Amino acid sequence: ETGEGHIPDVQSGEVELDTTLETPESHSGAYQAMIGPTRSRAMRVVGTIHEKEVTVFLDSGATHNYIGRELAQTVECTLAPHQPLTVVLGNGSRIVCRHICKAIELMLQRELFTVDLLVLPIEGTDIVLGVQWLETLRDITWDFAKMRMSFQKKEGGKHITLRGIKSMVTPKATLKIMVAQHSVRSTTL
């Protein structure tokens, strides 16, 4: 039984994973998001939430923002119910996001951003910021060769440059989210 504030755990068997693969066309009008190196460009930066260091993937192909279950529990974010959103992982497994952490204060290189983050009930994910966050930045200059993203912050018009971490480290295969769509199923997490 899962109550508000409890995030189910994939490894303990609380989460039902559906490994059947369906095409986006089979869900007429379903909302889709693409995350992962084959579909988009991403940059990794270091941030903090409540003085806890976190890894943040800025992903131009993701339409949503996500936080991993483990991190959501660690930073004690307040969970709110969310319309079910099915997320298809890179390995074909499906999970359903049913919770959101609202108005999380995320510090990225000395700049504070307030974001809403859908909770991914799997281990190992910190944060993915997608188009949901990127579109709030207005004009963006993104240099992937130099791992820099520049923009003007809406509040006050301050010019910000975020510098990415250059490394060969990639997210775990289970974190390479490929498709997210509003769930029309009643699978319980």
TrEMBL record:
The lineage of its organism: Eukaryota, Viridiplantae, Streptophyta, Embryophyta, Tracheophyta. It comes from the Eukaryota. This is Aspartic peptidase DDI1-type domain-containing protein. InterPro entries: Peptidase_aspartic_dom_sf (IPR021109), RTL1-rel (IPR032567). It holds the Pfam family RVP_2. It comes from Nymphaea colorata (pocket water lily). PANTHER family: LDOC1 RELATED, TRANSPOSON TY3-I GAG POLYPROTEIN. SUPFAM superfamilies: Acid proteases.
